[in-house]
Design a protein that fits this description.
With 159 residues, this protein is an alpha+beta fold. The chain is built from 8 helices and 4 strands, in the order αααααββααββα.
């Protein structure tokens, strides 16, 4: 229970490799997937975590091995947080950039395609914010975290 079945350095290297592989895979999947997780996205995420568990622990089911892996993952998360705070390059590489989806009430189709979003999905997100007409919108931006920010035309004209 308290003895490592796999060398600690091996566990650390496995955790680092899996962490970065999953970050890259999630980054490739797009920001929309992170911001608006559906039931199928949640199932995929749960299955991914189960699938990579053995590749991380290498057969080590000891308590200290599990605690070491948890500590490495938390340290990696903190390090990535620090890097994205300090470096614009890392922020863009790891988190992405916002995408303008609507400007002056007009949908920018090529940006929707880039984000793998269709117009009906966009309209659902707008309705969730109480917006029913495109002409109400000065700008709608899909943020790097997958959330939709909307600037209403009325907000601009009242200033």
């Amino acid at each position: 229970m308290m003895d490592f079945n796999v060398a600690p350095l091996n566990l650390i290297l496995r955790a680092v490799a899996v962490y970065f592989a999953i970050v890259i895979l999630l980054r490739i999947s797009g920001k929309r997937e992170l911001g608006q997780m559906t039931a199928t996205d949640l199932v995929a995420l749960l299955l991914i975590s189960n699938a990579v568990q053995n590749s991380m622990n290498g057969g080590d089911n000891s308590l200290v091995g599990g605690l070491l892996l948890a500590a490495v993952l938390v340290a990696l998360s903190l390090a990535m947080s620090h890097l994205t705070f300090r470096s614009r390059f890392f922020r863009m590489a790891l988190e992405g950039t916002p995408t303008l989806l609507i400007h002056d009430g007009k949908i920018i189709q090529k940006h929707l395609v880039k984000e793998r979003m269709n117009e009906s999905e966009l309209r659902v997100l707008l309705r969730e914010q109480g917006i029913h007409e495109l002409n109400e919108i000065q700008a709608a931006i899909l943020e790097a975290d997958g959330k939709l920010s909307v600037i209403k035309s009325s907000d601009i004209s009242s200033k």
